[in-house]
Amino acid sequence: MTTIRRRPVLCMIAGLIAVLSACAGGPQYVPVDIQDRSTTLYSVRAEWHPRTQTTGTNGTVVKDGIEVQYTRVSGKDDQELLAGQAIAVGGRSIIGPQLVSHRIDISYAHIAYSGTARFTGENPVEMDAFLGAGRVDFRLQSSATTSAPLTLETEQVDYALTMGLGLRWWFFTNSAVEGRLILLTANPFSYFAGTFGKGGQTDMLEGELALVFRPIGNVAIRGGYALMDLTPKKSSNSSFDFKLSGPFLGLGILF
Hints:
mainly beta; 255 residues; 9-stranded mixed barrel; 13 strands; single chain; 3-stranded mixed β-sheet
């Protein structure tokens, strides 16, 4: 009689152990990692500097005003998931072993207060600095290619503080070499605290190295190499890490 009464209890214990074992053996979520070093970045920048003044004994010219920039880039990459690994995109999951093909479209824009200092000379050097508000959005598609067709999609838009520096050397009257760095983050101190790019917030770092040619005074064509490293704020079991780089083509307009 005692044995019969104990059976329901033993069954409950066995069921609980089975549930805990299943949970312990669940998939391990890994980051969605996209690295494309053969993509092309496109950029348009418009500047309006209504104030100009000459400072110092060397005749340095300082201009300040507003700038607006828009950058777009697309990339793709394959990611192999091992047995027991998974990624989460848009509230759904792909569980390994799988080969997952990713496609990412990123657009970035900012409006900022900017200033340019031009150090006069035979081959003048210009230094830019800007601070303002930025917007970055991406659309991600992840497709499983080694089993039944399955495509996951997600979109995300974030707003944050943006800042940057630029340095330009005019080796001819209408030709220059230019380097430019853009930083977007919700917390500018995170870079020094070691939390930048860890997924706790949306962080982006973009760098450009380009040749600049001005066919006419207010228009500049820019071409070279650029990279974008975007880490959106983590919103699911998988974090996102997008690293895109390759040829760069830009247009600059000065009003």
